[in-house]
Amino acid sequence: MKRNGRTTRAAVFSGFFLMATALSAPAQAETMLGALAKAYAANPTLNAQRATLRATDENLPQALAGYRPTVNASGSTSVARTDTRVPGNRTTHTLYPSSLGIQIDQNIFDGNRTRNSVRAAESQVLGGREQLRNTEQSILLNGAAAYMNVLRDTAVLNLQRNNVEVLVEQLRQTEDRFSVGEVTRTDVAQAEAQLASSRAQASLAEANLRTSIAIYRQYIGETPRQLGPGVAAERHLPKSLEQAIRIGLAEHPAIIAALHGVDVAEFQVKVVESALYPQLGVSAAVTRNFDGSGTRDSVITSGTLVAQLRVPIYEGGLVYSQTRQAKEQAGQQRLQVDITRDQVQQAVVSAWANLEAAKQRITAAQAAVGANEIALSGTREEAKVGQRTTLDVLNAQQTLLSSRVSLVTAQRDRIVASYEVLNAIGRLSAEGLGLKVARYDAKRHFEQVKTKWIGTSTPDGR
């Protein structure tokens, strides 16, 4: 940009977010949605939560085992030696008795313990899916923030480096003017001090960028090299704050997970109470005994069928206490739902306010940048004719730099705030953003294991 025959290296910033140019060539730039797709596919925290859900899926077949029979086989063998002595006679016998048996036990009625355990396990699985969805939201939000932080800090670093170049030129001009007596040694010292401060700020900006790159790698899984411009999520947002709150209270996975937690707690009350009810079961067994005499083996085969009814009378008050405890835990879980609703509503309001504030800051920062560019140009011209000092020029230069940094930060905040609103209402997901990545199907593993009667291998072959 040319002003009065001189070329300044300062960039002109508009409301459009242009920070990516420092990192990338447009033809090969990584897109923001592409980075989020990588986080969705490979983030360790998200994959760990998926593994946690798969482990939770196993609660259902474990609960269903209460309906199924148990079968046990048994066997034994031994050596028995008998030595009989009478006057004039001694008899010795050695026996090898052994037995084989099989027993089947089948529950008939267990006070509805199994039934309620199955229903609790189903609620645990549904709650686990919502917890996974909540983790997915957090990872995508953190990934979006990490992406924008790299762009912001890259732009700030470029501004600081550009400012150093401008101040180097400013110091050279001041020294030239000092050599011909137009300014004093104080002006030179002020330019030197400002340059030293600017170099320190550039070093700090570089350190901030390195930190942001490390966080980016943590969430996205690779080091950023060529990043495209950020993409806001505002097109996915509701039209008003009131609508956003309604959606959040109805759809946020944290609230739905808490409601499933209430179901689990209430079923657990019934599971504990089942110990106070009669228990009925059937047991069948077949046994074969061999005396193993070696000369004339005898085999005895026996079979039994037993129906057993157990009626608890008093167990020392343990089950009564456990039942009361479970009811209090259910009450606590119901209160947790109210707490979560309040947290979600607060998050929606806060995120919405941050988004609106960021929009206003962008407008103000754009106006400030334009005004400060004019002010810097005028101050430089006035300094040429002695109406302004070198310090005035330096101050104007730093004011312009500050307003440009504020604009960059506000642009970053607007994009991140749009994802924060989407997260707060519970709609930040790979599907909602249209990420081009294979979706993780949380139901697939559940369907594979829920009716599995036998086998220690996981569905993926482990």
Quickly list its features.
462 residues, alpha+beta, Outer membrane efflux proteins (OEP), four-stranded antiparallel β-sheet, two-stranded antiparallel ribbon, 11 helices, elongated, TolC-like, membrane
How would you sum up this structure, described in words?
- This protein has 462 residues and is α+β, with helices and mostly antiparallel strands.
- The chain folds into 2 domains: 2-68 and 111-277 and 316-449, Outer membrane efflux proteins (OEP) (Up-down Bundle); 69-109 and 278-311, Outer membrane efflux proteins (OEP) (Single Sheet).
- Helix content is 61%, strand content 13%.
- The protein has 11 helices and 8 strands.
- The strands form 3 sheets. Strands 3-6-7-8 form a 4-stranded antiparallel beta sheet, with no helix packed on it. Strands 1-2 form a two-stranded antiparallel ribbon. A two-stranded antiparallel sheet has the order 4-5.
- The protein starts with a strand and ends in a 13-residue tail after the last helix.
- Mean pLDDT is 87; it is low at 1-27.
Count of separate structural domains? 2
What is the number of beta strands? 8
Largest sheet: 4 strands, antiparallel
Distance N terminus to C terminus? 64 Å
Q: Please report the first level of CATH classification, the CATH class of the largest domain.
A: Mainly Alpha
Sheet with the most strands: spatial strand order: 3-6-7-8
Gyration radius, rounded: 38 Å
Low-confidence stretches: 1-27
CATH topology category name of the largest domain: Outer membrane efflux proteins (OEP)
The CATH architecture of the largest domain would be Up-down Bundle
Keywords: Cell outer membrane, Coiled coil, Membrane, Signal, Transmembrane, Transmembrane beta strand, Transport
Family: Belongs to the outer membrane factor (OMF) (TC 1.B.17) family.
Main location: membrane
Subcellular location: Cell outer membrane
